[in-house]
Amino acid sequence: MKEMGKDVQFYFSIIKSKLFKKIRKSYNFTHKDVALLIYRSKSSVEQYEKEKLVLPLSILSLLILRGELLPFL
């Protein structure tokens, strides 16, 4: 049963990374743009997309919210 939990976490992590990249591209943001929006380094943004760093759900949410609000600022 524990193995299944690890598999779910693993695939959820992959899905978050792919969604992060898709959102970034849909807003036409560069890695640098996103780094400024979410208060992370450009290197961290690249590692999130390559699944080398675990992407916290809070960072994904922050990207979505800030990306939506940016035109109004």
Structure report:
Helix 1 packs parallel to helix 4 (57-69) and helix 2 crosses helix 3 (42-49). The longest helix is centred in the N-terminal third of the chain and has 25 residues, at 2-26. The relative contact order is 0.16. The chain has helices at residues 2-26, 31-38, 42-49, 57-69. The termini are far apart. The protein is an all-alpha fold and 73 residues long.
- The oligomeric state of the chains shown is single chain
Q: Briefly note the structural class of the backbone.
A: mainly alpha
Outline: elongated
Mean pLDDT: 91
Output the radius of gyration: 13 Å
Helix content class? over 70%
Write the H/E string, N to C: HHHH
The total of beta strands comes to: 0
Low-confidence stretches: none
Distance between the termini: 48 Å
Q: Helix count?
A: 4
Percentage of β-strand residues: under 5%
Largest sheet composition: none
What's the SSE blueprint?
Blueprint: H1 2-26, H2 31-38, H3 42-49, H4 57-69
Q: Which characteristics define this entry?
A:
single chain, 74% helix, 73 residues
Write a brief structural summary.
With 73 residues, this protein is mostly helical. Helix content is 74%, strand content 0%.
